Amino acid sequence: MFIGEYQHNIDQKGRVFMPAKFREELGDKFVVTKGLDKCLFVYPYEEWKNFEQKLRTLPLTSKEARAFIRFFFAGAAECEADKQGRVLIPAGLREHASLEKELSIIGVSTRVEIWNREAWENYNDDASLDQDAIVEKMAELGI
Fold it and tell me: What is the pTM (predicted TM-score) of this model?
């Protein structure tokens, strides 16, 4: 399980230092893809396979389902950390998440998210994140 929040920088070559706790759980190879909310999602290979299986059940006759599948798969990249714990993030993915210098790397249960630090701070400060409304919605979902 991925938990916690870490602050790191991306270097000029597009490499990100992945926290040691996350590297251990991610394994040797993992998948980085576009995430929702303008961040990147990082999945251990086995979790990516589980996600892929769920997406395979979506109907190809649905325009929205096809768009959803394309969103996650078109930009996905198989990655691995080097001996220093750095991960090279492909240019298209860096652009999607506006990764320029300062980053927030967060654990979100089954995946890691990589955010532009300012975007992460803005997301957390966003008045539209009405916690009471979120709690009510989660209650409707049985959580």
Answer: 0.92
